[in-house]
Specification:
By secondary structure, this protein is of the alpha/beta class. Strands 1, 2, 3, 4, 5, 6, 7, 8, 9, 10 and 11 form an eleven-stranded mixed sheet that branches. Strand 4 and strand 5 form a beta hairpin. Helix 2 crosses helix 10 and helix 8 packs parallel to helix 10. The longest helix is centred in the middle third of the chain and has 34 residues. The protein is globular, with a radius of gyration of 22 Å. The chain starts with a helix and ends in an 8-residue tail after the last helix. About 3% of the residues have low confidence.
Length: 509
């Protein structure tokens, strides 16, 4: 622990050398807490009662927050760059898929939102999971500290709770499995506390991003919460344990009814996901309490969200994300802060690509950088202006991941499948590649009211298409594309083609 203390003392000296800003003209602070794989459709927000009370109820809850891709690295890359997956180039969790690859670092990371915050005079702090390949040798090792961050505590690789490595401002820090000193969510909380202890109303404004492993696998709760929710089970409503009809072939290969061992596993995963989130809830409470004690809360925006959703038995798919349905592509979003009208619930569809432009407007940047595809959410902050929005269509993309062979499933030899369970039900494949547009359509007449429509094109041998009326069919049972006339299909396919190539303002349709 001594090397960490030395490094933090040195950074503290540098922080104190930043010119003080008068309270009167001080820019707002920003805290961004990001969870991993936290859904909304399966009740993923339910255990986080403190966060809802301290952030959602004191500000805005966005009910229709979507991600650009239902996979960690592509979604996180979109959050950092404000760009769709096709624009930022990080298509999956591998280096070859540009997850924290040297090429991505040279072309995208250098224009991520933290670099603009530094230009606005912000002190920046990061702790937790960054990108899935971060810190690996081919991605620059722990020595690589992404530009724009003053305090850097980055997890090497994917989410873990114990037995992990951190890059602390470019120096390796090794953690083992002592719950008192190594549980990662608590480590993030303690390091955030250390950073906040240095802040006051006369110091430079700060941006703090806390990126927890919860509620991603291996779903390890802190010891104090390991027995909570003993009787909870994965939700049995909606599409749980129902076979998906008129859906792409990967959904069709699911086993219905779910095998007993799969149900038992899903229930245990569900309980542990909730348990891991209790530590995140404690962190949010701690952060708000510190800000309140230091008289910083009223001048601080707090943003809470996740990188993608999750499913546990929906359409009989065992346990994963990566699908085009609402349970995988919708996540929480809550915002409180200066000039944010409390008690709002916004139904307009927004996206993770909107977070970077929002942070930059909060920080006083006069306009969103032209390469960013997202829009600032600031028009929603005042209840009087929350109808002002320049976009009716959003895009979700996924490029299927696969392996040539699937251990334990010889029938899939050279079939390029992935994420298969003990019953050889697979969650991904080479042709689980798709683009979906989600469009808010205006009313045509009293008999044809406005609606939100999802239209998806699968890049498989069939060019399979799926369409859902999200207002009338929130569980996405009925695929309307099956009976849609070809001329109307063409309209949606043209829209998908446009969105797949859009950049900047051309994405705002």
């Amino acid at each position: 622990m001594a090397p960490y203390v030395f490094r933090m003392l040195w950074i503290t000296v540098l922080t104190l050398l930043i010119p003080a800003v008068s309270t009167k003209n001080r820019k707002p602070n920003i805290v961004f807490l990001l969870t991993d794989d936290q859904d909304v459709k399966l009740g993923g927000q339910t255990p986080m009662t403190k966060t809802k009370n301290l952030v959602g109820d004191k500000g805005i809850i966005f009910e229709n927050m979507y991600v650009s891709a239902p996979l960690c690295c592509p979604s996180r890359s979109s959050i950092l760059t404000g760009k769709y997956v096709h624009s930022n180039g990080a298509v999956n969790n591998s280096l070859t898929g540009n997850c924290s690859s040297p090429y991505w670092q040279r072309t995208q990371e250098v224009k991520a939102f933290p670099t603009y915050l530094k230009g606005q005079g912000y002190s920046t702090f990061f702790a937790g999971k960054y990108l899935n390949q971060y810190g690996t040798p081919m991605a620059g090792g722990v020595e690589h500290v992404p530009p724009g961050w003053d305090w850097w505590i980055g997890l090497v690789g994917n989410s873990k709770y114990y037995n992990y490595h951190l890059s602390v401002n470019g120096t390796l820090e090794v953690h083992k499995d002592d719950p008192k000193t190594d549980y990662l969510t608590d480590i993030i909380n303690r390091r955030a506390t250390s950073f906040l202890s240095l802040q006051n109303s006369d110091s430079a404004p700060f941006f703090m991003m806390l990126s927890t492993p919860a509620c991603h696998g291996p779903f390890t709760p802190a010891p104090k919460y390991q027995n909570n929710f003993p009787n909870k089970t994965a939700p049995r409503d909606g599409s749980y344990n129902k076979h998906g009809h008129d859906k792409h072939w990967l959904i069709q290969q699911a086993i219905t009814p779910l095998p007993n061992d799969t149900v038992k596993s899903e229930d245990q995963v569900f309980r542990n996901r909730w348990r891991t989130l209790l530590s995140v809830d404690d962190m949010m409470e701690n952060i708000v309490n510190i800000l309140q004690t230091k008289n910083l809360l009223e001048n601080t925006y707090i943003v809470f969200s996740s990188d993608n959703g999750f499913h546990l038995g929906q359409f009989s798919m065992p346990s994963d994300k990566r699908q085009l349905y609402e349970f995988d592509v919708r996540v929480p979003l809550m915002i409180r802060g200066p000039n944010v009208t409390a008690g709002q619930v916004v139904k307009e569809q927004v996206m993770n690509i909107d977070l970077a432009p929002t942070f930059l407007e909060m920080a006083g940047l006069p306009s969103t950088p032209g390469q960013m595809d997202g829009l600032s959410l600031a028009p929603f902050f005042s209840s009087a202006s929350n109808q002002t929005w320049g976009r009716s269509t959003i895009l979700v993309e996924h490029q299927g991941e696969y392996h040539e062979n699937t251990p334990g499933c010889p029938q899939f030899r050279r079939q390029n499948m992935a994420n298969c369970n003990n019953h050889c039900v697979c969650e991904d494949s080479w042709n689980n590649t798709y683009s979906c547009v989600i469009k808010r359509e205006s009313a045509v007449s009293p008999s044809q009211p406005g609606r939100r429509v999802k239209y998806c094109l699968l890049k498989d041998n069939q060019n399979f298409q799926e369409m859902y009326n999200l207002d009338m069919d929130p569980y996405e049972f009925k695929n309307l594309a099956v009976t849609l006339p070809e001329d109307k299909k063409k309209v949606y396919l043209n829209l998908i083609e446009h969105m797949e190539m859009c950049s900047g303002e051309s994405c705002h349709v």
